[in-house]
Amino acid sequence: MRKPDWVIDKEKARRAAASETVWLFGLHAVRDALLNLHRDKLRLVVTRNAADKLSAAIAESGMLPEISDARKFAAPLDPQSVHQGAALEVKPLDWGPLAELCIAREGQVPRVILLDRVTDPHNVGAILRSAEVFGALAVIAPRHHSAPETGALAKTASGALERQPYLRVRNLARAIEELRAMGYLVLGLDGEAGQTVEVALEGHRDRPVALVLGAEGPGLRQKTRESCDALVRIAFSGPFGSLNVSNAAAVALYSSLSR
Questions:
Q1: 119, 46, 126, 128: which is closest to 89 by C-alpha?
Q2: Average pLDDT of the residues of the chain
Q3: DSSP assigned state of 239
Q4: pTM of the model
């Protein structure tokens, strides 16, 4: 009996995910990945100079590096990649289910960032750095139409990708509903919103908060806007102002925590 098409597609997707690998590059990204016990590491390519700089991390990882000439670097990277003589082939990280990542721990003021179709890996990498600095529990994005885990993203994150959960979900609206069921107040960032982040959080700063940011230009999709509890904006000192999405994420996250 032939399997239904949806079962076949699901099995194909599972096999593709199992075979997927990512090439990380740059000294910071490679060093932190080597030291990450949860990262499956497959192949390490380094120049002599990079091997010296990464010697402690290489020794701790137990990997046997391939020494490569800097002029004919052996890793299959884009020629424009600033690899600094270090590249590491890895499996993508598995952060587990949203409910486990985003549950409040004792003494925490839970904050989560959701990204609605933010596809630039440099923006997402910068957001991961800010999320780590300000203690966000996770950065969540849809599986499709978002920046995947790549070497460029990891290099911009400067190691944060190994420590800061980056969870890609099937459906962003469903993830928002799950967070709301966990007690999160969900705030969508919109430059034309009537209230600021600070005003929306008056009397709610000890409550779990999810901040939703859209792509630069189109902003939040209509369905995403409708899924939020409220729309908010960042307070500017003058009548006009705009930030790129990574800066907006950092400022909004800080604003949600400061009193």
A1: 46
A2: 89
A3: S
A4: 0.86
